[in-house]
Amino acid sequence: MKSAIKKGGLIFMGLLLTIIIIGQFTMKDDDTASVDVVSETVLVPGGHSVGVRMDVKGVLIVGLEEIETADGKKVNPGIQAGLQIGDMILEIDGTKVYKAEEVQALVNKIQGDVKLKVKRKSQKLDINLTPVVSKDDNLYKLGVWVKDKTAGIGTLTYYNPVNQSFGALGHPIVDPETGSILSVDKGQLLQAQVQSIQEGTAGTPGEIRGVFYEADSPLGGLEKNSSYGVFGNAYHPIENPLYTKPLVVGRQDQIEKGKAYILTTLDDNKLERFEIEIEKINHQSEPADKGMVIKVTDKRLLEKSGGIVQGMSGSPIIQNNRIIGAVTHVFVNNPQKGYGIFIEWMLRASDS
Q1: CA 340 – CA 307 distance, rounded (Å)
Q2: Which spans are transmembrane here (predicted)?
Q3: What's phi and psi for 143, nearest 5 deg?
Q4: Which of 48, 148, 165, 171 is catalytic?
Q5: Calpha distance 1→208 (Å, rounded)
């Protein structure tokens, strides 16, 4: 799925949709140990539409721009110093920064050369930079566009009643410009209300449009954004009206081709169960996101949405009364089909 970015904001076009107006955004264990842990786990299945609000750890560079100085020259201090899109600014002259406005305030307080501590992928770098004064507003600038927050709508995958943890989305929240996974500083999982559904067609993914309000009682706190979903701890128990008791987790070797179900929320914020077919199982010895190819066969879901749409990521997959995975991606040219991740990889990411 393609992504787009706007100044001061983020639009993430995976199956997590960024809020614009009303919303829409290893450890390697041996196989035996993994099976033992998973086989003993029971989870409350999700399917609830949820809002994800996250403060990014540090300040992410999402763009680089030229600054016109008072003498008419156009320069980009960031590029000259070696900054790159996707770099995370952690400190300026030894002072930690967490918000975009803190960067501008510190740079204009120093009014001279600055030393940045930057995180680039897994490396931490020290970069010296000389800001310039902008002709437009007479402020010292680095020549970078930065952001510190993101928000969107997705679907809850599970709630673990034993340790009050939860998992959602089945894929990471990434910066659309760089593709880098955003690090969580703090964030919350919120209740969301579905407002409308745009039907998906070949070449044009549909989407769930919804809204969440900061004043609403949050479901839990976010602690981790990983390749296999977002994770955290719930503030109170989460229930599923379709399943009064938790379901046992299904291992890869227990999954079969054929009929299964997904749980998701569409009309009137009603959590529903829809029939799908598992067409292919990609058995994996290490975590990966595309473990299953699924096809929507339920006529009700096809009539409502055309199949899998953006905002359904994280919808749990149920087979033989076991929770076996979650929806992660839609086939752009065939919205009836998509990929699913094995639930064991989400649980491993949460535990690690």
Answers
A1: 14
A2: 9-27
A3: 80, 35
A4: 171
A5: 15
171 is catalytic: yes
% of the chain surpassing 90 pLDDT: 55
Least confident of 19-33, 219-233, 285-299: 19-33
* Structure token digits, residue 270: 């009603």
Residue 192: phi and psi, rounded to 5, are -125, 155
The H helix count followed by the E strand count for the chain is 5, 27
Q: CA gyration radius for the chain?
A: 22
CB atoms within 10 A of CB 125: 14
User: How far is it, in rounded angstroms, from Cα 229 to Cα 241?
Assistant: 23
Token pair belonging to 77: 């201090």
Residue from 313, 315, 329, 350 carrying the catalytic annotation: 313
CA distances from 122 to 6, 86, 128 (A): 26, 12, 19
User: Which distant-in-sequence residues (6+ apart) come within 8 Å of 199 by Cβ?
Assistant: 206, 304, 305, 306, 309
Say if strands 322-331 and 247-249 run parallel, antiparallel, or are unpaired.
parallel
Active site residue 305: no
pTM: 0.74
Using 50, 70 and 90 to split pLDDT, how confident is the model at 4? very low
The fraction of the chain above a pLDDT of 70, given in percent, is 87
36 or 288: which carries more pLDDT confidence? Answer: 288
Cβ(246)–Cβ(43) below 8 Å: yes
Looking at residue 165, its amino acid is: S
Residue in the block written with tokens 């639930």: 343
Q: In the chain, what's the furthest Cα-to-Cα distance? A: 72
Instruction: Find the distance separating the first CA and the last CA of the chain, reported in whole Å.
Output: 28
Token pair of 258 as six digits: 């054929």
Go through the domains of the chain in sequence order and give each one's CATH number: 4-56+149-351 (2.40.10.120), 66-142 (2.30.42.10)
Q: Give the tens place of pLDDT for each residue, 259-268.
A: 999 999 987 7
Annotated catalytic residue, options 29, 93, 185, 298: 298
75 has a pLDDT exceeding 60 = yes
Give which of 179, 60, 49, 45 is closest to 118, Cα–Cα: 60
